[in-house]
Amino acid sequence: AILMEAKTGKVLFEKAPDEWVAPASITKIMSLLLIMEAIERGDLALTEQVTCSDYAASMRGSQIWLEPGEIMSVNDLLKAVAVGSANDATVALAEKVAGSEAAFVDMMNRRAEELGLTNTHFTNSNGLDSEDHFTSARDTAIIASELLKHKLIIQYSTIWMDSLRNGKTELVNTNRLVRFYNGITGLKTGTTSKAGSCLAATAERNGLALIAVVMGAETSDKRFASARTLLDYGYANYTMHTPNAPDMPLEVAVKGGTEEKVQAIPEGITSIVIPKGYEKSITYTTDLTPTCEAPVEKGQILGRVIIKANDQEIGGYNLIAQTAVEKMTFFKALQRLFFGFISL
């Protein structure tokens, strides 16, 4: 199990987070990520129609009973995957994106490599038990955090009930926390005999976005109870804090440059996760180099602001050169001297 803050990646709790486990339909988090990315690239549209293949229709387990040759929109298939965890719909979308499920699985494994996941390998797109198909709680949380960057997914993962085929096929979300947990944003359940009961539950309150992953629970009730306990722990004990910017201007002397000094500005101040109650004890220490040698590149690191609370370092950000400063050469010095005389 693991509890991670989605935007910063900060881990708030973990238990055997890197153990290889069968993921069941938690697999679909990666499948949904690739589908969301295809939509964002413009390679796939929600209104696009998908024709179900014989292979997609043959999927066992949770499904919407697609018939070979049946046509359904990407939008409806996404509902089937995100809400009903439909294996047949997942394969149909995988084939639409990559041409075949095998090619899509190759994309899944490449994406896992890009995300730096070392405890994940996929052999299918839907999570049916298979040899050499595994992940870990930590890797699952990382994939989930990447998926949550695509806000479109929340429109599907937060649906409690819906229907397809003009009301003939009912969908009820396999994640019961969607109905009962405050701030829930998703995300995915999974259950097979090999994997046990799994859940990646995501929620956001007051800017604090949490991902609770529970793998291999004995029962469905235990996975929901465990995930709720993790989320409750996170919201009871942590909060998001936006650091202060330093008093400006901050200047660094430049030796041998065309300018005597360069301004140092904050580089991307982002919110950090801190324990509740630490806010009043936060202090800032600025460590800025007094001088630097030309040439200076724009964005060059000139120092850092260290953030502490209760005498513990909890974060920080770099101070970088606002502009570039060229090195002074004999020719440039002569040029300046010449134009100085001209202006007289």
With strands numbered from the N-terminus, the spatial order across the biggest sheet is 14-16-17-12-11-15
Total beta-strand segments? 17
Structural class determined from secondary elements: alpha+beta
Q: What is the helix tally?
A: 10
The residue-averaged pLDDT reads 95
* Rg estimate, integer Å: 26 Å
Which descriptor suits the 3D outline? elongated
* Helical content band: 25-40%
Low-confidence blocks of residues: none
The biggest beta sheet is recorded as: 6 strands, mixed
What are the main properties of this structure?
344 residues; alpha+beta; six-stranded mixed β-sheet; five-stranded antiparallel β-sheet; 31% helix; elongated
What is this entry, summarized?
With 344 residues, the chain is an alpha+beta fold. The protein contains ten helices and 17 strands.
Describe this structure in words.
Strand 16 and strand 17 (312-321) form a beta hairpin. This protein has ten helices and 17 strands. The termini are far apart. The strands form five sheets. A six-stranded mixed β-sheet has the order 14-16-17-12-11-15, with no helix packed on it. It has a five-stranded antiparallel β-sheet with strand order 2-1-9-8-7, sandwiched between helices. Strands 3-4 form a two-stranded antiparallel sheet. With 344 residues, the protein is of the alpha+beta class. The mean pLDDT is 95. Helix 3 packs across helix 4 (87-98) and helix 4 packs across helix 5.
Give a topology summary.
Layout: E1 2-5, E2 11-14, H1 28-41, E3 49-51, H2 54-57, E4 71-73, H3 74-82, H4 87-98, H5 101-114, H6 137-147, H7 152-157, E5 161-164, E6 169-172, H8 177-180, E7 184-192, E8 196-205, E9 208-217, H9 220-237, E10 238-241, E11 250-255, E12 261-266, E13 272-275, E14 282-288, E15 291-293, E16 301-309, E17 312-321, H10 330-343
Parallel strand pairs: 11-15
Antiparallel strand pairs: 1-2, 1-9, 3-4, 5-6, 7-8, 8-9, 10-13, 11-12, 12-17, 14-16, 16-17
